[in-house]
Amino acid sequence: MAGKTALVLGATGLVGKALVNQLLRQEDYNSVTCLVRRPLSLSDFPDPLQKLKPVVIDFDHFQDYQGYFSVDHVFCCLGTTIKQAGSKAAFRRVDFEFVHIAAQLARAQRAEGFVWISSVGADAKSQNFYLKVKGELENAIMRMPQLAHAAAVRPSLLLGERHESRYLEGIGQKLAPLYSPLLCGPLAKYKPVTAEQVASQMIALQPE
């Protein structure tokens, strides 16, 4: 029986890297294509079975790469911060527009499943710009007709080492062992999670 094929966007990020490595280890998947801005550091992705297929693309012409979405499962880990992006408009371009285009391309190529990273507290009516954009994206994708199977993961603070420095996130990670045990019941969704946990959840949300 042929294995599944996967497409990953955002493979160099904290969750993306964990996700790709989990997919490479899973027997269910025989091909993992990654669309990236620059060549991957292959030492970060042990691939004894040669499943990994990195492809450098120009995200300013994202629509031109529709053919790569002809896979079973699409995983979208694209995301940035306003500080990194440089402006709210640039942030929205990555966290809303690129992810929304990815969902449209997955639909056009009839991918069986599309899973992306949102955020705990995502709400299109939020006064917080970050959460508002995440909420608007959820609404846009979940209302998209003929997208076979779409699902979002909503992580809280992500635990793990990033290549880039995120000051507030760094403080949160240091304090996490102190406050995490206090987050119970309705507050449990705010518990910090590891990139590996989020990646596992993304895989589990894809259809069989």
Automatic annotation (TrEMBL):
<dbReference type="InterPro" id="IPR016040">
    <property type="entry name" value="NAD(P)-bd_dom"/>
</dbReference>
<protein>
    <submittedName>
        <fullName>NAD-dependent epimerase/dehydratase family protein</fullName>
    </submittedName>
</protein>
<dbReference type="Pfam" id="PF13460">
    <property type="entry name" value="NAD_binding_10"/>
</dbReference>
<feature type="domain" description="NAD(P)-binding">
    <location>
        <begin position="10"/>
        <end position="132"/>
    </location>
</feature>
<dbReference type="InterPro" id="IPR036291">
    <property type="entry name" value="NAD(P)-bd_dom_sf"/>
</dbReference>
